[in-house]
């Protein structure tokens, strides 16, 4: 079995896979072209197109992350090779921390205290009960469902939305366009953990953002494409115009790194983080990749991605 790895930590991956699979040849994408070209498996994150195009006998592709948007846009991606992606692999917990931080930031008025600090204002803000702070989670997949459960366990009423109908204990689940409208009308904080697909592009446009209650906050660790950036800026308001939304915590953007002249950097109601919400934890991910390789080799049925749906 020959595996070629391409990711930021390729040497660590190479060493871990070689140790777990002593019969396998494990190369990084830095290996000479004639050595890497007849791989059985690619374990990759943001790989260059040539690495896919030069393969002749691939049996499987393992995406070393939860989002497959980059992979699906890579020219030369074979249509007849099964693709699996990391599912949770420790990212759910990291994402839940990020989401909980975001919700607490607004729920406990940290945004207002930061503003008050500018004028040395000593003033307590009202604390409502958590059951008065419904939180919406768009996307109830491997990571989204983890986040929904964590927020529910933290005491917030949680409303979730996915493509197909779902039942998650303690979470009020919605689907479809009407379901989204119903959810948006009720939540005080909204977390978007949807994949970037044709169907989710600008799913939060001006009309959808206006459906959120006055003073709601948006937390987006999903993908930048989910939100119409200009519509978000308009909804947040600027200068003397207070805007419909209270604030946003954003981890992902249309263009990354976020250009220095993007107004989101300077907006007083926005916190920008550099796509750091849930980096792939190496040990969990390696264990999952090894189990994928065993499953591929033994002909087990794997839950592959659906390229038409885009995730
Ligand atoms: P999954 O593929 O497991 O789940 C995706 C969820 O989105 C599913 O619940 C799915 O519905 C739902 N969905 C997809 N399309 C639609 C649609 N058109 N309408 C409604 N719901 C839809 O993904 P993960 O939970 O593993 O990850 C989600 C995303 O999080 C990734 O794609 C990535 O973009 C982002 N991410 C960001 C990170 C960061 O550091 N910022 C780190 C890791 C992930 P259904 O259940 O019905 O299929």
UniProtKB/TrEMBL annotation:
- Give the Pfam families listed for this entry: 2-Hacid_dh_C
Q: Which InterPro entries would you find in this protein's record?
A: D-isomer_DH_CS1, D-isomer_DH_NAD-bd, NAD(P)-bd_dom_sf
Question: Which domain of life does the UniProt lineage start with?
Answer: Bacteria
Domain D-isomer specific 2-hydroxyacid dehydrogenase NAD-binding: from-to ranges: 103-277
Keywords annotated in UniProt: NAD, Oxidoreductase
Please report the name of this protein according to its UniProt entry. Answer: Glyoxylate/hydroxypyruvate reductase A
Its lineage opens with: Bacteria, Pseudomonadati, Pseudomonadota, Gammaproteobacteria, Oceanospirillales
């Amino acid at each position: 079995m020959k595996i070629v790895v391409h990711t930021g930590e390729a040497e660590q991956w190479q060493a871990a896979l070689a140790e777990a699979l002593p019969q396998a040849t494990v190369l990084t994408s830095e290996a000479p072209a004639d050595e890497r070209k007849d791989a059985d498996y690619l374990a990759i994150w943001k790989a260059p197109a040539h690495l896919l195009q030069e393969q002749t006998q691939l049996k499987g592709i393992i995406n070393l992350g939860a989002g497959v948007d980059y992979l699906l846009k890579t020219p030369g991606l074979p249509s007849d090779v099964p693709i699996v992606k990391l599912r949770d692999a420790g990212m759910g917990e990291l994402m839940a921390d990020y989401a909980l931080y975001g919700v607490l930031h607004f729920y406990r008025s940290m945004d207002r205290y930061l503003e008050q600090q500018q004028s040395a204002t000593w003033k307590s803000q009202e604390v409502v009960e958590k059951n008065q702070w419904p939180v919406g989670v768009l996307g109830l997949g491997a990571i989204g469902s983890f986040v929904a459960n964590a927020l529910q366990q933290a005491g917030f009423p949680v409303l979730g939305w996915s493509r197909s109908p779902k039942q998650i204990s303690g979470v009020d689940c919605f689907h479809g366009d009407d379901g989204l409208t119903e959810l948006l009308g009720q939540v005080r904080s909204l977390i978007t953990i949807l994949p970037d697909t044709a169907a989710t592009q600008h799913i939060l446009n001006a009309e959808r953002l206006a459906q959120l209650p006055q003073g709601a906050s948006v937390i987006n660790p999903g993908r930048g494409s989910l939100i119409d950036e200009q519509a978000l800026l308009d909804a947040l308001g600027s200068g003397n115009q207070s805007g419909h939304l209270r604030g946003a915590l954003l981890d992902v953007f249309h263009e990354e790194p976020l250009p220095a002249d993007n107004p989101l950097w300077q907006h007083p109601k926005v916190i920008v983080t550099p796509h750091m919400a849930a980096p792939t934890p190496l040990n969990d991910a390696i264990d999952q990749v090894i189990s994928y390789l065993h499953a591929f080799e033994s002909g087990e049925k794997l839950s592959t991605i659906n390229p038409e749906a885009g995730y």
